[in-house]
Amino acid sequence: MADALLPNGISIAYDDLGPATGTPLVLVHGHPFDRTMWAPQLAALHDEFRVIAPDLRGYGGSTVAPGTTPFAAFAHDIEALLDRLGVHEFVLGGLSMGGQIAMECVRLFGERIVGLVLADTSPAAETDEGRTWRRELAERLLREGMKGYADEVLHRMVAPHSAPEVQEHVHRMMCATDPEGAAAALRGRAERPDYRSLLARFMAPALVVVGAEDTYTPVDEARAMHAALPHATLRVIDGAAHLPNLERPDDFNAALRAFLSAR
């Protein structure tokens, strides 16, 4: 683990493991988690690939910035961290909100991204109903804290039949998240743009992954995203819901390794 103080005053905690040579893989966690959601990927892949996993601002060990955090702010933090690490070109992966932030990175500095991994995410802009829900949820988290929300959504995040230690890890990450950071991200997420036309213009290789039991971003949405990307592979992970990288890490890692090795 390390910390980087960015020029904008935000401190980003991150893991950076693996060989110094080759193209790094950068992994962006979802909401309301932290970089430890990528622990199975760092453990399995770092012998062969350099893997960088930051905590987004507002999460984990990074600076909590209250108010509203637009996706562009998350993306610029990632860019500044990679500049500090001397990384110019990289493969970028993200899950759920992390996948949407990865798409924002494509919008802002896509020329640096030589491969894209989108897991259990959606490129569509938020609906009016969704914007209202996210803003109301932000206020609820500030009033009540994270535990009630974590209890409610745990078995949508991971399937009820997933391993107890996975359920405990996911619940622990959600409960440990600072409500100010979570609320700021929710407000920013409510205002995200539509990335579908952007994906249609992305010419580098892409991997789309989805849990077969995901109800947040169902398989049909993943298939549509796969069809929109010019050079994409689709992998549906059986026995997993919204976090297949934790629920079925061997299957997820195999798909990721095959994608990285084929580049």
Automatic annotation (TrEMBL):
Keywords: Hydrolase. It comes from the Bacteria. The keyword Hydrolase applies. Pfam families: Abhydrolase_1. GO terms for molecular function: hydrolase activity. InterPro entries: AB_hydrolase_1 (IPR000073), AB_hydrolase_fold (IPR029058), AB_hydrolase_sf (IPR050266). Residues 24-249 form the AB hydrolase-1 domain. PANTHER family: MONOACYLGLYCEROL LIPASE. This is Alpha/beta fold hydrolase. It comes from Streptomyces boluensis.
